[in-house]
Structures are given as structure tokens and as C-alpha cells.
Design goal:
Helices cover 46% and strands 15% of the residues. It has 14 helices and ten strands.
Length: 345
């Protein structure tokens, strides 16, 4: 069994640990931040952490009403721009805490008036010494190069931070149930193991998600690229209509994340178009009608609503990547040319 698969299975326990060990600290942090009159939130990350930031952007903007930006680190590291960050909250997300460009942005942001937070799995890392407030994933060491438990841990902290900033509302309420929902979702591993060999010879695909599941599309595409060496493009369902749909032909693989919510009607319209093109469609969804329209589906618990969906919905994607790598005879733990800590400026 790969380390990646082992760490996928650890996620319910990791998420529960975060809730237990970080709730009080994040609650106190929220009280302090509300007094600071935060008018802008900037998220800075790379790789899987950047995909978690994509999710956090949607969650934070919807729940708090505060504009959220994804930082371009080269603005700071290569162009040496001096931004005015008064009344800004800058959040660095890094599983290792050693991303040089992430830490550079955080240092500059703090000097320019921002309050800084670091989300990491490594309590002795550089990011902890760089920020005003570190938050920890408590995932123990992640040994596989492909991030899984640290990715969902970053997402869980995003829920907690949103709740602390916005208070309890329809967006942030109920995230305490996520560890249990993930444990129940892991029960799909056997079905996904049977499904994965169908895609053994897949060389190209598209992954689609929108809204709160947009980051999931980026993350699954990354996992397929780094563990299975599949060229995986990722799009929102809306952007896919603006040109990329033209490349789809018979048997072209399209993987879709689709949970109940305002995005579902648009996803169904897209799937109808994909059916006309005779594409190979795989839906990760709880919607039985959508599942029936697709070539294949991975069923999700129907009680998982839109705002709690992103973490449970990514788990089948992680399992698919790990088990597809196995079916291809690849080791997902040691992708070629990659290392666990990536240092860029």
C-alpha cells in the first residue's frame, strides 16, 4: 500500500485533531481580527496549498463579505513592489512552512501594515517565526510527496477562520461534522479501486468544478499530473463553455465535481453537451439525475450540502489518483523530478 493511500485514510483523524487543538486559538484570533477593521484578505500559497487557497477565497468572501485576493508572489520577490496593506489580513499557506517566496511575501506584508497568519503542518518551520499568528494542521509528518491530509487540513482551518471572522452563519455553520462525513466517504475506496483500471491508458483529461468546488478541480488535476503523469486541464464549468469545449471528442475523459447548489443547473447543461460529443464523463456527485447522465459516477452522501462539500468531495478524487497510479504501475509517493519541499522565489 502506498504512503499516499495510507495518508488519505488518516484524514478524518487529522481533521478531528485540528478541531480539538486549534478551535480556541482561532476563536480568540477572530475576536482580535474583528477589532482591526479588516478590509482586505490576501492569500499566498503554491501547489496544493494554492488550491486550498482557491477554496478559501470563495469561502471567506461568501461568509465575511471581505474581498479576498490570491497573491502573486513574484510581485514581491521579482518586481519588489511596495503594497499598502493597512487593514489587510495576509494568510500564508504552506504544508512545510519553508516556501521561500511565501515567507518573503509574509515578511513584506507585515512590514507594510498587514496582520499575518501562517497555516502549516510544521511547528518548527520558518513560517512560524515569520507571522503574527501561526495555525497548525496537526497532521504528523506527511511522507508522500503528493499532499493529501495537509491539503484537507488547510481547508479545515479555512472553515474555522471563516467562522471566527464572520460568526456563525449559513456558510460557516456545521463544519464540525466534516471529519465524520470524510470517514463515511472513505467507504467508497473499494468501488473506486474497481473503477480506476478503466482509466489506465488515459493520457489527457479535463477536471471541472465551480464555486466552492473550483479548488477541487485544480487539486485533482494536480494529483493526476504528479502521480499518474496524466495531462490534466482544470476549468470552471462556466469557463469551459468559452472555448475549451471545442477540444472534446468521442471518449475524451471529463471528470466533474458537482454538489447540490446553484452550480448544478449549469453542470447539467454542460453534461448534456458532453453527451452530444460522446465524451467519457465521470461525476463525483450526490445528484442521481446527474449521475445518470454521465458515463460513470462516484456517489457522495446525499446529506452533504454545498458548504460542507469541498473536503468530503476531494477524497474520492485523491483515492482515484492513488489507485490509478497503482493500476498504471507507478509509485504515487515519489513522483519523478519532485520533492516534498519546493523552494522558489
Amino acid at each position: 500500500m502506498s504512503l499516499m493511500l495510507e495518508e488519505i485514510r488518516q484524514q478524518p483523524d487529522v481533521l478531528a485533531r485540528i478541531l480539538q487543538q486549534e478551535s480556541r486559538k482561532i476563536g480568540e484570533l477572530g475576536t482580535s481580527l474583528r477589532k482591526r477593521d479588516i478590509r482586505l484578505i490576501v492569500l499566498v500559497a503554491r501547489g496544493s496549498s494554492d488550491n486550498a487557497a482557491q477554496f478559501a477565497r470563495y469561502l471567506l468572501e461568501i461568509s465575511t463579505g471581505i474581498p479576498v485576493s490570491l497573491a502573486a508572489p513574484s510581485i514581491y520577490t521579482l518586481y519588489h513592489a511596495k503594497l499598502n496593506l493597512d487593514h489587510a489580513l495576509v494568510v500564508g499557506i504552506s504544508q512545510s512552512g519553508e516556501g521561500e517566496d511565501i515567507n518573503h511575501v509574509l515578511t513584506e506584508a507585515r512590514a507594510r501594515g498587514a496582520f499575518t497568519i501562517g497555516i502549516t503542518n510544521e511547528p518548527n518551520s520558518t513560517i512560524v517565526k515569520t507571522v503574527d499568528a501561526p495555525l497548525f494542521i496537526h497532521g504528523e509528518r506527511e511522507r508522500s510527496v503528493a499532499a493529501t491530509k495537509t491539503f484537507t487540513g488547510q481547508m479545515m482551518i479555512s472553515y474555522m477562520l471563516a467562522g471566527a471572522l464572520a460568526g456563525s452563519n449559513t456558510v460557516t455553520r456545521g463544519y464540525e461534522a466534516i471529519p465524520d462525513l470524510c470517514a463515511r466517504t472513505l467507504a467508497q475506496e473499494g468501488m473506486i479501486r474497481e473503477l480506476a483500471p478503466r482509466y489506465t491508458f488515459m493520457e489527457n483529461c479535463v477536471v471541472i468544478g465551480r464555486g466552492l468546488l473550483y479548488g477541487n478541480a485544480f487539486e485533482l488535476a494536480l494529483k493526476l499530473m504528479e502521480t499518474c503523469y496524466v495531462v490534466a486541464e482544470r476549468f470552471s464549468s462556466a469557463d469551459f463553455f468559452h472555448g475549451p469545449l471545442a477540444m472534446v471528442e468521442r471518449h475524451f475523459p471529463v471528470i466533474l465535481f458537482a454538489c447540490p447548489g446553484p452550480m448544478m443547473p449549469g453542470i447539467k447543461i454542460l453534461v448534456e453537451r458532453l453527451r452530444e460529443a460522446r465524451a467519457e464523463t465521470l461525476a463525483i456527485t450526490s445528484d442521481q439525475e446527474l449521475a445518470g447522465l454521465c458515463s460513470r459516477s462516484i456517489p457522495i452522501l446525499p446529506e452533504i450540502g454545498e458548504f460542507l462539500a469541498p473536503i468530503p468531495y476531494i477524497i474520492p478524487g485523491q483515492l482515484l489518483a492513488a489507485l490509478l497510479a497503482e493500476a498504471k504501475g507507478l509509485n504515487p509517493d515519489t513522483p519523478r523530478a519532485l520533492s516534498k519541499v519546493t523552494r522558489t522565489l
